[in-house]
Write a structure and sequence with these properties.
- The chain folds into 3 domains: 2-62, no CATH class; 68-172, Tetrahydropterin Synthase, Chain A (2-Layer Sandwich), CATH 3.30.479; 207-250 and 290-309, no CATH class.
- It has 9 helices and 10 strands.
- The chain has helices at residues 2-23, 98-103, 108-126, 129-134, 136-151, 170-212, 214-230, 243-250, 279-300; strands at residues 24-27, 31-37, 40-41, 49-52, 58-64, 68-78, 84-95, 156-167, 235-237, 306-308.
- A 3-stranded antiparallel beta sheet has the order 3-2-5.
- Helix 3 crosses helix 5 (136-151) and helix 8 (243-250) runs antiparallel to helix 9.
């Protein structure tokens, strides 16, 4: 009799252990438990810790409450300015209502993924290429709003959406590179022209200042000679005033005057014939004319001859 009682107690204990093993569930800190009793939602969402359910009657679903990182596959579309691009993004979301995440939608991850792809294609069609490349913050906010609107009913909250990459065709990349190069060239020419304008104004002011003080021009000339002589070259520039050329032109001796005819005490052989302008003298005068004209032209402009060492 005693053995039968002990055997019954042991059986009841084993059955109790099996019942406890089937009834006790452990919910982790980042999870929430949703219990369905005979197919209907029963009670509140179970908090982290140990949860007890009725075996074979209740069914417990655990929902992860952590932030989920969901990459969006690259979507190809045509922008508002008719440019074909491929854009991929990433979505960060989390479950805020575990009961709705289980009851309202079959698979909230798949639903958020499909909604994100559809919204991304819609954003591509509504935006220009410049907005996709430079104004991503505004597009991220618009994309987040488009995904978050239906996700609220699923018990899901969109934390943020980021556009990762925008792929352009090779022809568009080359066109943009040429445009950027032309823009840089334009800016360089504008800066160069502005520098030339400022330099010309300063030179005009310097010329007006030197006009009142001629010695400043001579000092500037000496500074230029010093700068040229400082370099390693075999050419030395020696400037001299143009008045020196005019002085040399005036100091050039003229043709000798003929002696007077009929001087007493001289024989007819030693008497010089009167000077007659012949064709030879006319030819000499005509030969000297271009030389004098060249001398006048040289004297009319400043000359800086170069003397080789």
């Amino acid at each position: 009799m005693v053995q039968e009682v002990v055997g019954a107690l042991i059986g009841v204990g084993c059955a109790g252990l099996v019942y406890l093993a089937a009834a006790v569930r452990i919910v982790k800190q980042y999870e929430r438990g949703v219990v369905f009793r005979l197919g209907r939602l029963a009670g509140e969402v179970r908090a982290p810790g140990m949860a007890v359910i009725i075996p074979f009657v209740d069914r417990l679903y655990k929902v992860n409450m952590q932030i989920v990182t969901l990459p969006i596959p690259a979507q190809e579309g045509i922008t508002r300015d008719n440019v074909t691009v491929r854009v991929d993004a990433v979505v960060y979301f989390k479950v805020v209502d575990a009961a709705n995440a289980v009851v309202a939608v079959e698979d909230y991850r798949f639903a958020v993924s499909q909604m994100a792809q559809t919204s991304l294609r819609s954003i591509i069609g509504k935006s220009d290429l410049d907005d996709l490349l430079s104004n991503r913050e505004k597009l991220n906010q618009g994309l987040e709003l488009m995904i978050d609107s239906p996700a609220i009913g699923w018990g899901v909250q969109i934390d943020r959406v980021e556009i990762k990459d925008v792929s352009l065709p090779d022809a568009m990349k080359r066109s943009m590179a040429r445009q950027a190069e032309a823009d840089r060239d334009r800016r360089a020419r504008i800066i160069n022209a502005d520098a030339e304008l400022q330099a010309s104004r300063k030179l005009a002011e310097a010329a007006q200042q030197m006009e009142h003080t001629p010695a400043a021009l001579q000092l500037r000339l000496l500074q230029t000679v010093t700068a040229v002589a400082a370099e390693k070259n075999s050419t030395l520039v020696l400037p001299f005033p143009v008045e020196l050329l005019r002085f040399l032109e005036k100091a050039q001796p003229g043709p000798p005057a003929p002696p007077p005819a009929g001087v007493p005490g001289r024989s007819p052989e030693h008497t010089a014939a009167p000077a007659v302008e012949g064709p030879e003298e006319s030819q000499d005068d005509s030969a000297l004319t271009p030389v004098r004209s060249a001398a006048d032209a040289v004297s009319a402009r400043p000359a800086v001859p170069a003397v080789e060492e």
